[in-house]
TrEMBL record:
Membrane found in the keyword field: no
Residue ranges of every copy of the FAD-dependent oxidoreductase 2 FAD-binding domain listed in the record: 12-240, 326-371
One BP annotation, GO: NAD+ biosynthetic process
Keywords associated with the record: FAD, Flavoprotein, Oxidoreductase
Native organism: Desulfovibrio sp. U5L
Protein name listed in UniProt: Aspartate oxidase
Coiled coil residues, start to end: none
InterPro entries referenced in this protein's UniProt entry, alphabetically: FAD-dep_OxRdtase_2_FAD-bd (IPR003953), FAD/NAD-bd_sf (IPR036188), NadB (IPR005288)
GO-annotated molecular function: L-aspartate oxidase activity
Length: 482
């Protein structure tokens, strides 16, 4: 296998990914140290990943505005976390700084929904229906353009068409000194850097049915885990019901009042059991499935009627509104897991930082609506600043870097055919064994993925399987309660 690799000039900070977290990290680094060499490796020239992929073209941002609101947010986040890991210090930082990050977006001209007086309109949040602490902004393509412009205006370089394959380390599980990237033609490129910030998103795109955006590879968790970073909450994805054709959100709680009926395999309507109805009374309070919550009984009920890939057929029950049956699926959405970070985005590996779906600790198994957008902005900014101010002299050029790069590249190969085959098999396996059913067969999924990982050579396929294994093993460790 030809491993000819072109090495780019060294950087102070390399950001992997150009979603909300990655853009804010690059902006934060360049702002903290003007003149620093900061660049973003991004899969596309335009918007990519989950940050800008919402089919409704809008996002919620949770911004507790005073001490009482911040205390309430922290208490709610802690209550929603089990059985996932949550670090109170990170939750407090998130609550304290979300409002300031929201105001920065306002100064960029981001289009917030507003009241008649011109103030941002306040909304309740998923898992926090009584609060009014969230704002909503729209026109996500324009948000990307504004944040990209803010970063490049401070000297950040863009490296479009490059996706991460691995991080380069001085030794196994040692300090990070750069990254191995792949361009659109499949060529490998080395980017030395004193610090690397992982903002590559989560594993949702690995599933057959998902709501991740264009350019999402699903490699982020696998790359972090392979580097030796301490990981947590990797089994806790958000799951949203959506139409299989439109991918637009579908309210599963329409089953509660009988407005919609599920159909069985023979096309017959199935009434909702009263026991499920009673347990699911709180389901309208949140769009995602609630891990460990009683109202997940409604999601489990519909999944039991779905096919092997989690696709269910439903129909309106009102005879005055005749419509054809349509299909919905529980789609993989944003992850609550990633590398465990400190308040400045540091992982357990020197020189490696994380933000967005690559980081965790600020929420556990479930998270309050709008908290992921807040976390991307808050910890993206903190990671960027910490990474560029770190006083690290690392071998980002010369023989030592070349030796580390050779060791990194020797673990992988490039095989486009194998990659395509592995990705298709992985999507099917995750869809059939990885959905949050009442009794998922995660042990079988772990065995299947581990067996595939032993034979896969292609670097991207290997990282994707590693991501899937982190998801499956965490899920197997925390079986779902009845």
């Amino acid at each position: 296998m030809d491993h000819a690799i072109r090495t780019l000039p060294p950087l102070d900070v390399l950001v992997l990914g150009a979603g909300l977290a990655g853009l804010r990290a690059a902006w934060g680094a360049a702002e903290a140290r003007p003149g620093a060499r900061v660049a973003i490796a991004m899969p596309l020239a335009g918007p990519s990943g989950s940050s800008f992929a919402n089919p409704h073209d809008r996002l919620g941002l949770h911004i507790p505005a005073d001490d009482a609101a911040r205390e309430a947010f922290c208490a709610e986040a802690a209550a929603l976390a089990p059985p996932g890991l949550i670090l109170p210090e990170l939750v407090r930082v998130l609550a304290q700084e979300a409002q300031a990050r929201g105001r920065e977006l306002e100064t960029l001209g981001v289009d917030f929904l507003r009241t008649e007086t011109g103030a941002p309109r306040l909304y309740p949040s998923c898992f926090s229906p009584a609060s009014r602490r969230a704002v909503v902004f729209r026109n996500l393509g324009a948000v990307f353009t504004a944040m990209r412009g803010k970063a490049t205006g401070q000297g950040v370089r863009l490296l479009p068409g490059l996706t991460a394959v691995a991080v380069v380390q001085e030794w196994e599980n040692g300090p990070v000194i750069g990254a191995l990237l792949e361009d659109a033609a499949g060529r490998w490129i080395a980017q030395p850097a004193r610090s690397v910030i992982a903002a590559m998103g989560g594993p949702a795109s690995l599933f057959l049915h998902h709501q991740a955006g264009r350019g999402a590879t699903g490699c982020g968790h696998g790359i972090l885990g392979a580097a030796g970073a301490a990981m947590a909450n990797t089994g806790y994805l958000q799951w949203m019901w959506a139409g299989t054709d439109s991918k637009r959100f579908w309210p599963v709680w329409s089953l509660l009042d009988g407005a919609t009926l599920p159909l069985d395999a023979l096309g017959r309507p199935v009434p909702l059991p009263e026991a499920v109805r009673a347990r699911a009374a709180g389901r309208p309070d949140h769009c995602p499935l609630g891990h460990g919550l009683a109202d997940a009984a409604l999601d489990h009920f519909l999944l039991e009627l779905a096919d092997r890939d989690g696709v269910a057929t439903v129909v309106a029950s009102d005879p005055s509104r005749p419509e054809a049956p349509h299909t919905v699926a529980l789609m993989a959405h944003a992850s609550n897991g990633g590398a465990v970070i400190d308040p400045d985005g540091r992982t357990s590996i020197p020189g490696l930082y994380a933000a967005g779906e690559c980081a965790t600790g600020m929420h556990g198994a479930n998270r309050i609506g709008g908290a992921m957008v807040a976390a991307c902005l808050v910890f993206g900014a903190r990671a960027g600043r910490a990474a560029v101010l770190a006083t690290r002299e690392r071998p980002t050029t010369g023989r030592e870097f070349d030796r580390a790069l050779a060791a990194c590249a020797s673990r992988f190969g490039r095989d486009p055919k194998e990659r395509g085959t592995a990705q298709a098999a992985l999507a099917r396996a995750l869809q059939r064994h990885g959905l949050p059913r009442q009794t998922p067969d995660t042990a079988a999924l772990v065995r299947l993925l581990a067996s595939c990982r032993q034979t896969v050579v292609d670097a991207v396929a290997a990282a994707q399987i590693d991501s899937a294994l982190l998801f499956a093993r965490e899920t197997a460790r925390h079986p779902r309660k009845a």
